[in-house]
Design a protein that fits this description.
341 residues; alpha/beta; nine-stranded mixed sheet; 11 strands
Length: 341
């Protein structure tokens, strides 16, 4: 082959490789002998599970400021970094000798509370106390833009900000020397049902999650049941958010549609990847998040090998309070004990 023919051959080969890679960008690592294709970015890619899986979550707990004594634990105000934002949280630590390997822990993710009204040391007090009294480090995170946490409140269903905050909190606990990094579970309420399940789909090795009155698992369920949260106050950037939803709809169809994009957003499409266990708790009389969310989700879990439970309560409303609170907490602790102790 003459020199000209060789050049033509190389050009054709390069074009063929580009075609086979789907027109993707390529990265050549220093010292590498092969070209490694990287996916071509696309609009709203940050919402998808594959994108979130390819991110790094490297955070550590900040300085701890003593807050108060519990019955057999101490609580502290602390923080961690998430996307460059300082996110606050309430951290409980059991008293006594740290067990071999460290304490088991729970990332505690709150439901919707008007961000400007959120206070680190308020809400979910009895929930945190119950878990802490049973020997768990509990990290009740504020989420960005809530209370005094930096950043803007990103919302749950149409943003990945809160999922990223949750996974960075998980990383911060894994990097704490008094915590067993292999025994960290998650607890979530209401909108955090979506946050926690997406976090599980991203970090497939999370051993266990408990969800109370969760919503938005398949995304098609949001269309089916809707939400009835009278406490919701549209944020100052409501126009921008509405524009985002409008752009999503125009580009990829309605949420929960059969488009490839929404398939990559819905965490229920990644259930076969999960290694942990899931418990759902829901009151039949919940007038904010229809119990149909949990019943539909449990049917999907029935088709998998994921250990799972659904506990229904005749009363208790959206917070599973009153007479149903203690039974729900007993079920929650028993489930965590099964997989974290």
């Amino acid at each position: 082959m003459n020199r000209f023919g060789f050049v033509v051959f190389v050009v054709i080969l390069a074009g063929l490789m580009y075609f086979l890679m789907g027109g993707s960008k390529s990265v050549v690592k220093k010292g590498a002998t092969s070209i490694i294709p990287t996916p071509t970015p696309f609009q709203f890619q940050e919402l998808t599970i594959p994108y979130l899986r390819n991110r790094s979550y490297l955070s550590k707990l900040g300085d701890k400021t003593f807050y108060q004594d519990g019955s057999n634990y101490k609580s502290y105000i602390t923080s961690y970094d998430s996307d460059g934002y300082k996110v606050n949280g309430l951290l409980t630590i059991p008293e006594g000798k740290v067990p071999t390997g460290g304490w088991p822990a729970i990332v505690f993710v709150h439901g919707y509370i008007p961000p400007s009204q959120y206070v680190t040391t308020e809400r979910y007090i009895d929930y945190v106390d119950y878990l802490a009294r049973n020997g768990y480090v509990v990290f009740k995170i504020d989420l960005r833009g809530n209370g005094k946490s930096e950043g803007n409140p990103g919302g749950s269903y149409y943003s990945s900000d809160y999922v990223i905050d949750t996974l960075n909190a998980y990383s911060a606990l894994q990097n704490a020397d008094f915590i067993n990094k292999d025994k960290i579970g998650m607890w979530g309420h209401s909108m955090a049902g979506n946050i926690v399940l997406r976090a599980l789909a991203v970090k497939k090795t999370i051993p266990v999650a408990v969800i109370w009155a969760g919503a938005g698992y398949s995304y098609s369920d949001l269309q089916k049941y809707g939400l009835n949260d009278q406490s919701y106050h549209p944020p100052a950037d409501v126009t921008r958010r509405q524009n985002t939803r409008s752009e999503l709809s125009k580009k990829y169809g309605e949420i929960g549609s059969d488009s490839e994009f929404w398939k990559q957003v819905a965490p229920t499409n990644y259930l076969n990847d999960l290694k942990g266990a899931i418990e759902l708790n829901h009151a039949v009389d919940d007038d904010v998040v229809n119990i149909g969310y949990s019943r539909d989700f449990i049917k999907l879990l029935d088709k998998t090998k994921i250990p799972h439970e659904l506990h229904e309560y005749p009363s208790g409303g959206h917070n599973i309070s009153g007479a149903s609170f203690v039974p729900a907490m007993e079920n929650t602790v028993a489930f965590f004990n099964m997989y974290l102790k």
